[in-house]
Amino acid sequence: MMLENQEPLDIVLTEYLVDSLGIRNESYKEKKGVWWIQTPTGNRILKKMSHSESILKHMLSAMRHLRGNGVNLPTVYLTKENEEYVNINGTCFILIEAIDGKNPNYTIPQELAAVVKGLANLHKASGGFSTDLDSKPAYCLGTWIKDYEEQLEDMNRFYQEELAKSAPDDIGKVVLREFPHFFERGRKAVDGLKGPEYAEWVERVRHEGCLCHQDFAAGNLLLQPSGNLCVIDTDDLTVDIPSRDIRKLFNKIMKKKGYWDTALTKKIMELYQSENPLTASQWTVVKLDLLFPHLFIGAMSKYYYKKDKDWGYDKYFRSINEMSRFEKTYDTVFDQFDSMISQCLNEGTD
Q1: Cβ contacts of residue 218 below 8 Å, gap of 6+?
Q2: Which of 127, 159, 249, 293 is most deeply packed, by most CB within 10 A?
Q3: Alpha-carbon torsion, ordered 247, 253, 255, 258, to 10 deg
Q4: Residue 103 in contact with residue 224, Cβ under 8 Å?
Q5: What does residue 315 show for φ and ψ, rounded to 5 degrees?
């Protein structure tokens, strides 16, 4: 296993026109790491990338496109050879600008507005994107139905195993009680996505292009002293319809609140609509994607596959219970979503 102190950081930094006064590790795993580099002109950030070189080229190409269309991203510093990254024995490193700012707070209206409008503008700016020929784009476009069906069937297998037990444990009892509801909800979402709305949006993006961030949330954003919003982590940019990001941001915001708030849902829709208007058909896809129980299925998957090695049984138990309770609060919002879509579109034409 590669250790942090065995990384060739000095060799990497010699490829740049930079005088290093000190190096401080921010985070480290075997396949990726982040270091703060102190220089006479301020801090910079060195990142060890887990991507293959071809996927990294896609990410850098996407960043150039977004930056060229007005999205505020950290500068990627070029090497002495005018390259965007350094490759050491197949491992790639990039050096980027360190941004001064604070993570936005969803409970402060103007900061929430900056986040939602920032996402809308990222999607709008990504139109027309086509990746470099020698890169390998991350691609989720058109894969949802198959992926969601597989997730449901995978978790149904564990549900059936719980049914077969004569004395299920506490987590098993929760799964037996809650899974049938979420399985039915997931099937309803998938059946809805098999309608024309999802297919039409996929085809539109296939021809016009679109990038999704995949984790456009407060932790990956900085509000600068100037008031500008900077997107600081673009490692997972993928080609997909905007709904992927919208659904994830909705879930992040509502989880922080603790439940789905109808008025806040409408406000977020209005904020997004003001910068990157969606059609009624496209908002229907968002509604259906939110209906799919991503969070409950994710909590089940984490437990049965033991994805968090440092979690104990009690933490898995709390997670499954919390995601079940939270997901159910969307049901009322789902019933009102069509009305909110209509209101947003009508207000946009006033």
Answers
A1: 103, 104, 105, 106, 115, 252
A2: 293
A3: -130
A4: no
A5: -70, -40
For tokens 């984790």, name the residue.
Answer: 215
Question: Angle 86-88-91 (CA atoms, 0-180°, nearest 5)?
Answer: 90
Helix (H) or strand (E) holding 300: helix 294-304
Residues with Cβ within 8 Å of 74's Cβ and at least 6 positions away in sequence, in order, are 45, 96, 97, 98, 99, 230, 232
Judge contact between 303 and 168, C-beta under 8 A. Answer: no
- Structural class in CATH, domain 109-348: alpha beta
156 backbone dihedrals φ, ψ, rounded to 5°? -65, -30
Which of 2-6, 153-157, 231-235 has maximum average pLDDT? 153-157
Q: Which fold has domain 4-97?
A: Phosphorylase Kinase; domain 1 (3.30.200)
Q: What DSSP assignment string belongs to 76-127?
A: BPP-TTS-SSEEETTEEEEEEEPPP-B---TTSHHHHHHHHHHHHHHHHHTT
**Average pLDDT of span 208-219:** 96
The per-residue b/e assignment along 117-141, b for 16 or more CB within 10 angstroms, e otherwise, is bbbbbbbbbbeebebeeebebbeeb
Average pLDDT, the chain: 95
What does the pLDDT read at residue 348? 65
pTM here is 0.95
Tokens of 151: 């997730």
What is the token pair recorded at 228? 């500008």
**Structure tokens given for 78:** 């070029």
